[in-house]
Every structure is written in C-alpha cells, then in structure tokens.
Amino acid sequence: MKTLRLAVLPGDGIGIEVTETTLPVFEKLGVPVDVQFGDIGWEFWKKEGNPVPERTWELIESSDATMIAAITSKPHAQAMAELSQELRETGVSYLSPVIQLRQRLGLFANVRPVFSIPGNPRQIADNMNFTVIRENTEGLYAGFDFSPIPDELFEFIQRKKGARSSWQMESPMDGAVALRLMTRDGVKRLLHFAFQCARDQGYPRVTWVDKPNVMRESGQFCLDILEEVAAEYPGIPWEVQNVDATAMWMVRDPGHFGVIVSENQFGDILSDLGAGLMGGLGLAPSANLGAEKAYFEPVHGSAPKHAGKGIVNPSAMFLTTSLTLKHHGYTDQADAIQRAVASVIEEGKVLTYDLGGNATTREMADAILARL
Ligand SMILES: NC(=O)c1ccc[n+]([C@@H]2O[C@H](COP(=O)([O-])OP(=O)(O)OC[C@H]3O[C@@H](n4cnc5c(N)ncnc54)[C@H](O)[C@@H]3O)[C@@H](O)[C@H]2O)c1
C-alpha cells in the first residue's frame, strides 16, 4: 500500500481532543500514513495575524490529503481586539480559515453524508441514507455583502424600486445588501458533481433545492442549467424543491432523499439540519472537494464551552477519517471505521453525553478503536 502523506490540522478547542483520540486509527487499520501536523486557527491569528500561516499552505500543498478538526472564528471587532498589540496597525484582517481554504483551493463542493445508525438513540429516523451537497464558493456567501450600500448599487436599487415596495431608504447608510452570485460554470460543475455522486453511490434521486418561485430570475437560470445537466444522466431521477419544503420533508420523510444539492446558504442550513437528524454535531463528518484538492473535517466547531474537558463525541472525527480514506481509495478501511462507530453506538455502553451516556472522549474513541 502506498503511504498517504496526511496533513493534520487540529485547530482549536475540542479539535485538539478529537484529533488526539482518533489518530491511532491508522495504525490499528494498518494504513501507512505519514502524518504531519500543521498550524491553523485562532491562536495563530492572535500571534501572527494569520489563522492559516504560509507554512500551513506549503504543508497542504505537499500532502496527499488534509484533515482539519475544528477552528474558532469570531466577528470582526473581537478578532481585532484579540490580535496582538504590535499587529493592530499593520492592516491585517481576519478571514475564516475554512473560507480561505475553500476559496484558495477551489473546493466548490461541501459534501455531508447523513445516515442512520442502528440503535442510535438520538437520530430522527432509521431509514436515512442521503448526502447533502452544498456549493461552497458562491451564492449568497460569495462575499458581496455590503453595509453601507455602495453608491452605484444604492442608485440602482432606488431606480428599480417598484411602486409596491414598502421599504424606504434615504441614504446608503440606511440599508445593507448581500448579493447572491450564481455563475453558469459554478452551477454546472456543482450539478455534474451531484449527478455523478448519485450514479457512483447508487442514490435513488437528485433533489435540486432552491426558491425559484421567489428568486425568479436566478432560480430560472439554475433550472435551465439543471435540465441541461440532468439530460446527460438518463436513468437518474431528479426533482426540484423549495428550500422551506425540503426542510420540512427532511424531518417528515428523510428516507425519500438521495442527493440533496443546493447553493451555498440554503445548503449550509440544510446540511446542519442533516446533522441534527443524525442526532447532533458529534456524529456528522464532511468533505470539501474541488477538481484537484480536498480537505475533510467534522461538521462541528471548536465548542469552547466543552474544550479541555474531554467529554465530546469523537465519532464525527472518526467518520471524517473514514471519508478521507474512502476518497483516497482505502474503501475497506473506510467502511471498517464506519462499522466500528456504528457498533459502539448500537451496543450503547460507551457513549458520550450527547448520545445519552457519560463516557469520556478517550473512552468512546478507545471503544471504537477496539472494534477495529
Ligand atoms: N468548520 C469549523 O471549524 C467550524 C464549524 C462551526 C463552528 N466553528 C467555530 O466554532 C466555535 C464554536 O461555534 P458553535 O458553538 O456555534 O458550534 P460548535 O459546533 O463548536 O458547538 C455547538 C454545540 O454543539 C455541541 N457539539 C459540537 N461538537 C460536539 C461533539 N463532538 N460532541 C458533542 N457535542 C458537540 C456542543 O453542545 C456545542 O456546544 C466558533 O468560533 C465557530 O466559529 C467552526
């Protein structure tokens, strides 16, 4: 077996605990990995004015795979207040590391598998097996977010204001605007990715989630591309749903879905809903994939209120490791991790607090490792 050069970026808070307790999985499975730890997160922002130092980019570049555990991010004012004194006047500004990675590495697809685990006391249904694919680089999070509204845009909006619009603005200071950017190439590659995922993994259908009855122009733009792309995948059923209805049906009938694919913000919300259906953030893994690069991370953040206590669920990190291995061709080992996590949960003896038990992170991780 080829040695996998793996960059591991534990990050902040509980990221450090779940990384430590999960990493023995490679030795246990006999997968040859060369693990190199890298710096990322809040501490590096405070000390160096950059949460992703240049040496970390070099490490990612020279690795076959990258796993991140969890990173703390804070709003602008707090980020500047915590920055070391000597860096405050240098013009540096905080940009979330995961956004930096997604944009710089062109990782357009955020992939979140949602599945039932027999005996999981916290999941909403026993018949879930679907994947939420969220566009990662454009849509409403493309970065066109303004307050005050730029003059050109303010004038444009005032000019376009219809007689029925009830809002009033006297000046650009009286409003804020976020633009939803959908590009032809972006929507096309996302949809191809979704149909290929359905085909390769045998999902029963692709559901495009948007709000075309309200966002009529950008919605129709996407529907036209959807029809074109879907025609290239005969035999894979597809449908269009409004995002609000999807949220309801994911709860009422999760077994209906195969691949749910959506733009950035709608997908962001639905993918956390997916984690909730599974029983919480302690169980949800994710992959961020582009044409060439990829990185893998649990869906959860750094959970500062639990950090250092050793009580959080390591399963999301184990399942993230499983996704990483699967992506790099270690399918049997990836499946073995998934089975080990499921078996510990099904047995129900060594569970962390979020699954109704009182085991520590290490105890649950050791129980999972023992199943391998
Ligand atoms: N991709 C990322 O790295 C990422 C994702 C989300 C949030 N964040 C950051 O993390 C920090 C905290 O954010 P937050 O509190 O909104 O979200 P969070 O995911 O860190 O935690 C929310 C809550 O979920 C539960 N939880 C999370 N992970 C768990 C686990 N493994 N086991 C058991 N319970 C778990 C805890 O109750 C926790 O308080 C913020 O700085 C935020 O920006 C980072």
Architecture (CATH level 2) name of the largest domain: 3-Layer(aba) Sandwich
Number of strands: 12
Order of helices and strands: EHHEHHEHHEEEHEHEHEHEHEEHHH
Strand content: 15-25%
Helix content: 40-55%
Structural class: alpha/beta
Mean pLDDT: 95
Report Rg: 22 Å
Basic shape: globular
Count of separate DSSP helical elements: 14
Could you tell me the CATH topology label of the largest domain.
Isopropylmalate Dehydrogenase
CATH superfamily (homologous) name of the largest domain: Isopropylmalate Dehydrogenase
Overall domain count: 3
> Largest sheet, described in full?
7 strands, mixed
CATH class categorisation of the largest domain: Alpha Beta
Bound molecules: nicotinamide-adenine-dinucleotide
Strand order of the largest sheet: 9-8-10-5-4-11-12
Measured between the Cα atoms of the first and last residue, the distance is 19 Å
Low-pLDDT residue intervals, each spanning 5 or more residues: none
